[in-house]
Amino acid sequence: MANLNVDDLLSMLLVLIMFSIGATLRFSDFRRIFWQPRSLGIGLFLQMIFLPILTFCIISCTELHPFYKVGFIIVSLCPGGTTSNFISYLVNADVALSISLTTINSFLILLTIPFGVNIALDYFIGSETQITLEFGETLVRVFSLILLPAFLGVCFNQYLSKLSLRLRMPLKYINAALLAIVYTIKFLGSEEVGGSGVSFADIKQLLPVAILLQIISMLIAYWLATKILKRSSSCLTIGIEVGLQNTALALLIASEFLSNSAMSKPALIYAMFSFFTTLLFAWIIYRFVILKQRQKWNVNRPL
Asked: What pLDDT does residue 13 have?
């Protein structure tokens, strides 16, 4: 146990988180994928294509170190999971769409992560280093860390539904507590134990870029969704999904798959604030846009 690295803890925690997500689903829930094909297609496009491109454009305009730029690309390639589902639930957004997006992008990242990360490595770092993300190895490891535990969670909920229901809330608190502990170790720990060695100078340099990136991505994604979709709750869900990333997975890719602590720093900085800013964004949209639309509709509705 003394030799256990914080990245090993992060791997185990990611497995537990994905199992917990799966344990909220049944096999019948996958039919939701076909209920809202338009909303799902737009959401996936904005998450999987628009966000990495936007991130690339923004960080290309900065003077950040190439490792930090790659780190931000990694964050943009790791779509959010249970946390984004939870925020959609809190603000009465489209939870079914949120879960459907989580389900589909869990499969898509098997291809998009190694593909996108290697493009970023080649563009920002090039021949300066031999760092690469092996496609086959990454596919196997992401499958074992993401899809397999989620599938086992679905099976658990399908066949042991009463026990799954009783464990659902405790698992949320356990996951949150463990994630906070691991992030703290990662943030403050030495590189010998898998820490990233984040300094105040790193925070000062990376935090403004991370906040700017998240706010711009949420606003543009929400605005674009409103131009195409009629359901305001679906538009809000898409904004949430684009704004909140799976920083635990991003950390794992940067620090363990690529063995580069500098690339993990953007994910750590992003994790410091992203839940709270996404929740604030969701509350503002719900309170001042969606509720007003519903009130206006109720007033104008014929008796």
From this structure: 73
